[in-house]
Amino acid sequence: MPSTASRPTSTPPRNAPSGLVPNIRRPPRDATPAARLLAQLRRAAPALLAYAAVRVTGLLLLTLWAHRQHHGLWPILATEWDTAWYLGIADHGYTHHLGTAYDANNLAFFPLYPLLVKAVAVLTPGTRATTGLVIAVAGSFLAAWGIHSVGSHLHGRRVGVLLTVLWAALPVGLVEWMGYTESLFTAFAAWALYAVLTGRWLWAGSLAALSGLTRPTGIAVAAAVTVTALLSLRRGFTARALAAAALAPAGWLAYVGWVGLRLGRWDGYFAVQRLWHNEWDGGVETLRRLREVLADDSTPELFLVMVTVTLLASMALYVLSAWDRQPLPLLVFTGVLLLIVLGSGGVYFPRARFLLPGFPLLLPPALYLARASRRFRTLALTAAVLGSAYCSAYMVLVWPSAP
User: Fold this and answer.
1) Of 254, 247, 209, which is closest to residue 229 (Cα–Cα)?
2) Rounded to 5 degrees, what are φ and ψ at 280?
3) Measuring CA to CA, how many Å separate 302 from each of 47, 287, 296, 394?
4) Phi first, then psi: what are they for 162, rounded to 5°?
5) DSSP letter, residue 280
6) How far is it, in rounded angstroms, from Cα 93 to Cα 86?
7) Alpha carbon separation from 78 to 128, 134, 156, 180, 400 (Å, rounded)
């Protein structure tokens, strides 16, 4: 009797995008939802443990560095910079007026995270700052789980673990454990993309809508879901794919429309963004700052060098991703994300953080490391983890502005 060990254990979902066949072992179809969830969690456990180890390493270095500078760790993680804006919205709500002051209108910040902070804080002990940090850390583990699921679905468990570790070891990885929205947004993005890859259209549309209520770049997740869903209709009509295409941008459109109604002008949200210097200029300001850091400034600030290297590396990785023929939803998501971040005329220094949710860009190096020798893989990952720990601590203890 021929061996069946290498045969797939299940067929791909009927509406999954063509060419994408899951290579992970699934629980029996009659398993309960809880059993399926536990089985998936067991598969992701190595990636989640590795993720925690990377982030704890960074936190330990930050703790030692902050102690030497007599700087409190808690304010860094839970109360400063953008976190203060989100906590202010949770405490007092949104403003009713546009105003004229620059960098002062809280309508620039999307509502889901502060609403979650407010709602969960009512049911739990501790301050809203504590609640916000707990939500961010929990979101980071959900994001790591989703990233592992995407990577292992496409290329196997080793690549899934490596992809998760590389995301944890980004230079601005500390933001994943701060009271910011990047972790929550990445969780929605990762699971929305996984839902698209496995043909779960209603989940994909719903998660994309939630991402659109979390960050302005939620429109990139919506674009990935909507474009892929509409193209899937060429292979046969399905009401779920059509519903996902319509649902995906609903969260982003709802908030932008609500801001317009609140301010009494159709372009209300974009007027707020202009007060934050965040107009889209097609990349003119990005090119100017790249030239300034790389050529004009003889002693550029280290953090700005890191941001510049991150932007250049992200562009190169996108080219590699397209060359590797990544699945369409991943390419659309990272492509739109790059267009938004690189095309913005706004402030330059937070752009490495803005690209943190673009984890599919890390698939090419994850694939390379999966094929490399164990020695090289160990050295590369160790360097990435230590570099991330140093850059993250420098970002919040030396760099004088927001991450």
Assistant:
1) 247
2) -85, 120
3) 31, 18, 15, 9
4) -65, -40
5) B
6) 9
7) 9, 9, 36, 9, 17
φ, ψ for residue 246, nearest 5 deg: -80, -35
**Confidence category of residue 120, pLDDT binned at 50, 70, 90:** very high
What are the tens digits of pLDDT across the range 191-232?
A: 999 999 999 999 999 999 999 999 999 999 999 999 999 999
pTM of structure: 0.92
Q: Which residue has the tokens 């790389």?
A: 294
In eight-state DSSP terms, residue 108 is G
% of the chain exceeding 90 in pLDDT:
86
What is the reported pLDDT for 37? 83
**344 in helix, strand or coil?**
strand
For residues 73 and 96, give the distance between their C-alpha atoms in angstroms, rounded to a whole number: 34
Tokens (6 digits) for 293: 């850091």
d(CA 221, CA 219): 5
Distances (CA, A) of 362 to 94, 169, 389: 36, 11, 18
Angle in degrees, CA 388, 139, 126, rounded to 5: 105
